[in-house]
Amino acid sequence: MINVGILGSTGYAGQQLVWLLTNHSNANIVFLSSHSYEGDLYSDIYKNYYGFNKNICINIQEAECKLNSIDVLFIALPHGKSFDITKKALEKGVKVIDLGADFRIKSKATYEQWYGLDHQCSELLEDSVYGLPELKRESIKNASLIANPGCYPTASILALAPLLKAKIVDPKSIIIDAKSGVSGAGRNAAIPNIYTECNESIKAYSVASHRHTPEIEQELSHLLGSDLTLVFTPHLVPMNRGILSVCYANLTIDMSQEELYKLYDEFYKDEFFVKVTEDMPETKYVKGSNMCHIGLRLDKRTGKVIVCSAIDNLMKGAAGQAIQNMNIMFGIDEKTGLNFPAMLP
Amino acid sequence: MINVGILGSTGYAGQQLVWLLTNHSNANIVFLSSHSYEGDLYSDIYKNYYGFNKNICINIQEAECKLNSIDVLFIALPHGKSFDITKKALEKGVKVIDLGADFRIKSKATYEQWYGLDHQCSELLEDSVYGLPELKRESIKNASLIANPGCYPTASILALAPLLKAKIVDPKSIIIDAKSGVSGAGRNAAIPNIYTECNESIKAYSVASHRHTPEIEQELSHLLGSDLTLVFTPHLVPMNRGILSVCYANLTIDMSQEELYKLYDEFYKDEFFVKVTEDMPETKYVKGSNMCHIGLRLDKRTGKVIVCSAIDNLMKGAAGQAIQNMNIMFGIDEKTGLNFPAMLP
Amino acid sequence: MINVGILGSTGYAGQQLVWLLTNHSNANIVFLSSHSYEGDLYSDIYKNYYGFNKNICINIQEAECKLNSIDVLFIALPHGKSFDITKKALEKGVKVIDLGADFRIKSKATYEQWYGLDHQCSELLEDSVYGLPELKRESIKNASLIANPGCYPTASILALAPLLKAKIVDPKSIIIDAKSGVSGAGRNAAIPNIYTECNESIKAYSVASHRHTPEIEQELSHLLGSDLTLVFTPHLVPMNRGILSVCYANLTIDMSQEELYKLYDEFYKDEFFVKVTEDMPETKYVKGSNMCHIGLRLDKRTGKVIVCSAIDNLMKGAAGQAIQNMNIMFGIDEKTGLNFPAMLP
Amino acid sequence: MINVGILGSTGYAGQQLVWLLTNHSNANIVFLSSHSYEGDLYSDIYKNYYGFNKNICINIQEAECKLNSIDVLFIALPHGKSFDITKKALEKGVKVIDLGADFRIKSKATYEQWYGLDHQCSELLEDSVYGLPELKRESIKNASLIANPGCYPTASILALAPLLKAKIVDPKSIIIDAKSGVSGAGRNAAIPNIYTECNESIKAYSVASHRHTPEIEQELSHLLGSDLTLVFTPHLVPMNRGILSVCYANLTIDMSQEELYKLYDEFYKDEFFVKVTEDMPETKYVKGSNMCHIGLRLDKRTGKVIVCSAIDNLMKGAAGQAIQNMNIMFGIDEKTGLNFPAMLP
Fold first, then answer.
1. Which HAMAP family does its entry note (chains A, B, C, D) (predicted)?
2. Number of continuous H segments (helices) and E segments (strands) in chain D
3. Which end of chain D is more exposed for a tag (fewer CB within 10 A), N or C?
4. Are C76 and C6 in contact (CB under 8 A)?
């Protein structure tokens, strides 16, 4: 059994981790920590756990004292909050999977510019691994510190990777128009998040300034072999879960839609969690699962390719992918605890 | 392995069965039949099954030919459609779990009055078992034919059973005001079911005339030991899943709320799938799970007790309970394939 | 022109008043006050008012200084906050329409018991008028202080009034099971109000303890001519607007459903805003309007009558009714500014 | 009074026309026709009209006989159904406002290619006016036949017009990523439209093939003075109403965001129904109104401008704009019957 601790267990990503670990045959929850609910029974906060979970939330200091009893620490804290505990955990030989943004950006300067705070562990950046298994599986196997990808980056990078790897699109032409369910805004009591403000409306937000932009650019630049910049526009959609990432790029060679499909099929042929689909994807078909569906169309009239990917932001976009990374790091079947489809309707 | 066939696999209850069986460690899907989608790949209808299910939907005649290769047949057809195939399956020694209404009402006359058609298998009614495990577990163990309870009856009977068993309420005073998500209306292309007609609205329907009324009355009468009639009012609520059943009755003895809680705790103390909760339940805490949450309040000013139960209409209210019945019938752990909490949010 | 001031203009009821007054041919907004947004442009808070409203929110002290320039003051503040300003306004001859609860309950003791605070203006209770025009139109005409009814009481009293006036139901048997959209919870940043917590779920709340209970009981007791107590159960439904109030009572005389309909038709025959409908009502058909739809069924099997009323909680349940009261108080056509149906879908 | 007839009055656009005309001070509904509900009371189909509308739906033949009694005919029929009646109405001197697509595309060949049917009235195309008042007000004044713009084109053309008129973007770079509420799919009983299939999901549809593409291209080409092609991607969002159109283009000159805002402010400075807003728009702020909100951002890193417009698809995107056109054609205040903001929440 893999012994597990979770920091930030009462946020939505943390709670999704608890759900997945509750049903995971090879893992055991040792502690759940929470800043807001210290001392509370976990099943009093999330009442779906009546009969399933008896943990009482501890604080981060208590969690620190229990590092010796765990094999892996999941961190689901706001950015800037994971530096200290990550160092301590790694020193004790505990593997760390950080669901936050602190170890995703390899350039200290870029991190500090977009996140507006000093990076206090830049020495760890070199060895940290960007935990997108479909692209980095080998590095993940031996990593001690995983920077679990952001939700929008997961969907967007998986959608665009085959094109950039094949170098068949103009990197200056890339536009990502992505749409997320409201759980992406977190479990956060603020007026813009209340039901009556979100319901029956859609908006774009953080236009030309969202923090996931440099993360997507970094990973796509790696694939391409040279630096690129792109436009990324996130939206808030009135639904609980799901991300649809619609990506546009100018094709630089003559290719049919059929050939593009072949490229994608080949690229993802061994991946259980990525399915290239004839139809354009809908988020409901991946909701609550770790799956990513990708569809594409070639617009012959304009020479642009349109790639559309769908994930569940809390699963493949956060906790599901974190479990996938844990499975790889501990050498067990990558699908353990994740081998189920979306539940409809 | 238990070999399984499903009739009506493309309705919402049928699809929920497919989901549960896909993840069930002791069961194996042999065939899926569908009237509307004969010849289609199941994963082309429900695209969440890409990579999980390779069945092609067969018709009911083909299903009939495969009865020899299954141990249990799930029937998720409209009422009146299961008589013939049930007889044939039972003759071949195949156990039958009918998710429809055809074998729930023990009185042929009552069935015919409320459902408006002749019962063509009334000879099977005596041996069929009403599959509510918390009340009928022993009979289910040896049953060949299970009448899987309706969604509203499951929630309502579980809410009221302790009161009626204890004979502490006036049976003439019972009112059930129940609210269901839209999946309860089925996967049915009709104007009242379209998004823009259901969204942002609530209505009561089939007031004083819903077909689940005699089913609830039958089972509560059994518990009480004498016939009762009650008021049952169903509502349609703009959400996919969930039933909240709020039940009112006049208490006939002097009792405190605490004593009422003790009665309920005692009644359900050995039941994994029923939790008596201090708070009044919310459907989200059981959504996608086989759990039933029950809360109650004594209104001292009026002498009425208010009991509130929450289930997922497609799980404990249909497919989840059907799997629970299958597990009991085949002597395996009742929780197999159902041992997970609601996924939030 | 009627000159108008609004206290609490940035809550949902206050905002609905602004909307209605913007389109009202005989009224003129003099000031909008807001505790939370003092100094802000109203159209920066509610951006739907770009091009329609140039007010800057003032605080309550500034509002007090402007009492001389208005004819009527609408108060949409939390209970307990309107005592002082109401006295000052009345002293200056300004009519007051209070959308809060402070002047609805005629008994000081009952108010203090249910609201948990001292009533500081009980001397005004005798002359204040409960502003339900369909029952109190004559008193409203000459009132200086209107206690605008609560949302649940408006729906519930209109549903039950004909039965109680006719004295044909057992007053001990009355149960009101009411369902409200989330705007009923106000514009309030709290975890239970955020989108992901409300969406895809229904719950009952304040069971056997909601503060609208004594208000409903007071008005129905007046109609009946003697005191009654009843059960009132409110629910939160995932939609922005609307209340459906389903009321149950035992009929004490022999009557057909047809005769009951005649009773209702007769009772409301001159009322523009109340329609007795053959079908059971749906909240969408009154959403955004000042209409109340009422339908009913007699359940012959149990001798119970089931009356169902639908209103928009922010319109007939708050701001719409407040405007209706203003129109009556100022002797203009009661329908002014309210003469439009629900907008669908 | 302007005497009005409506063909297709029971679809969502038709019903929105009825709502607007019910409240219009200068118009009078003479007849409502409906293919599906011939002979039915309008208020039995749309129960919000109880007390507001006493029309019985007539069929198209009866409507034809009443052309003499109306001044203007609104046609809200599927494409291909309006040719014949349009000719007849125009011959009798009745003005026609067609909410469908049949007279929007000036090129017969383009229409036939995208809509897949013969155009039977191409002789009317020259004199028909594309009814987007902000761009064509003078032509609308004297028109007999208005082709009322599509919902997506209205939002997209208003968003991009200032850029193309100013010729400061590369026409080959234009991408429109638009999102619509479900009422855009019509009142149509089909499985993909039912609540449980649309709710909690987002999808792109008709990617690189939607029929609104040539309409947008035609109007933007006019503004630019030369032909352009562009990418247009529509999406379905789980909400009743609203379109958000997010438009991307490469800026070809050096300009600041401030200067871009000035360009837009200047372009729309006399337009009541178009507001250029500092914040990026949200559909809720225009829902139920005839307003269009436009916001924009310059992404300096990529040289791309991102313009975002929000409308209500049934109002400014259909019936509201049709009434605006009627007002202009009949020489009355353009805002008549449309002078109200969105109702929140």
1. ArgC_type1
2. 11, 13
3. N
4. yes
In this structure, the strands spanning C304-311 and C292-299 are antiparallel
The DSSP result for A256-322, as a single string, is -HHHHHHHHHHHTTT-SSEEE-SSPPBGGGTTTSS-EEEEEEEETTTTEEEEEEEE-TTIIIIIHHH
**Record: contact A190-C189, CB cut-off 8 A:** yes
Subunits touching B (CB < 8 Å, at least 3 pairs)? A, C, D
Average pLDDT, stretch A298-302?
A: 98
Class of domain D152-312 (CATH, top level): alpha beta
The domain locations on chain A are 2-149+316-329, 152-313
- Dist CA B146 CA B150 (whole Å): 12
Q: What is the DSSP string of D39-71?
A: TSBHHHHSGGGTTT---B-B-HHHHHHTGGG-S
- Residue C308 annotated among the catalytic residues of the structure: no
Give the closest of C181, C197, C298 to B345, CB-based. C197
Distance in angstroms (rounded) separating the CA atoms of residues D115 and D96: 21
Nearest alpha carbon to residue B309 among B161, B136, B132:
B161
* Length reported for chain D: 345
Can you name the CATH fold of B2-127?
Rossmann fold (3.40.50)
C-beta separation of A327 from A72 below 8 A: no
Are B238 and C239 within 8 A, CB to CB? yes
CATH number belonging to domain A2-149+316-329: 3.40.50.720
Torsion angle defined by CA atoms of residues D138, D139, D144 and D145, in that order, rounded to the nearest 10 degrees: -130
Q: What percent of chain C has pLDDT over 90?
A: 100
**Chain D residues lying within 8 Å of A249, measured CB to CB:** none
| Partner residues linked to C147 by β-bridges | C98, C130
Cα separation of A135 and A127, whole Å? Answer: 16
Q: Which of A51, A285, A343 sits opposite B19 (nearest CB)?
A: A343
The arithmetic mean of pLDDT across residues A233-241, rounded, is 98
Question: D233 vs A241: CB contact, 8 Å cut-off?
Answer: no
* Kind and range of the H or E run holding B15: helix B12-22
Distance (Å, whole) CA D179 – CA D232: 11
Q: Which residues of D touch B197 (CB under 8 A)?
A: 187, 195
Q: C-alpha angle B271/B331/A340, rounded to 5°?
A: 75
Chain D neighbors (3+ CB pairs < 8 Å): A, B, C
Nearest CA in chain B to A310: B48
Cβ separation A291–B51 shorter than 8 A: yes
Q: Tell me which chain D residues have a C-beta less than 8 angstroms from the C-beta of B195.
A: 182, 193-195, 197-199, 238, 240
Q: Which residues of D touch B196 (CB under 8 A)?
A: 12, 182-183, 187, 193, 240
Q: Which two tokens stand for residue B287?
A: 């959504």
Asked whether the beta carbons of residue A202 and residue D244 sit closer than 8 angstroms, the reply is yes
B292 Cα distance to chain centroid? 11
Summarised one tens digit per residue, pLDDT across range B230-269 is 999 999 999 999 999 999 999 999 999 999 999 999 999 9
**d(C-alpha B150, C-alpha B86), whole Å:** 18
Cβ neighbourhood burial of D325 (10 Å; 0-12, 13-18, 19+): buried
Query: Would you say domain A152-313 falls under CATH 3.30.360.10?
Result: yes
D-chain CB neighbours of B182 within 8 Å are 194-196, 199
The pLDDT value recorded for residue A266 is: 98
Q: Helices marked H in D237-319 — which ranges?
A: 257-267
Out of A187, A195, A239, the one facing C198 most closely (by C-beta) is A195
pLDDT in tens, B97-124: 999 999 999 999 999 999 999 999 999 9
The closest alpha carbon to D52, from A151, B17, A206, C339, belongs to: C339
> How, if at all, do strands C145-147 and C129-130 pair?
parallel
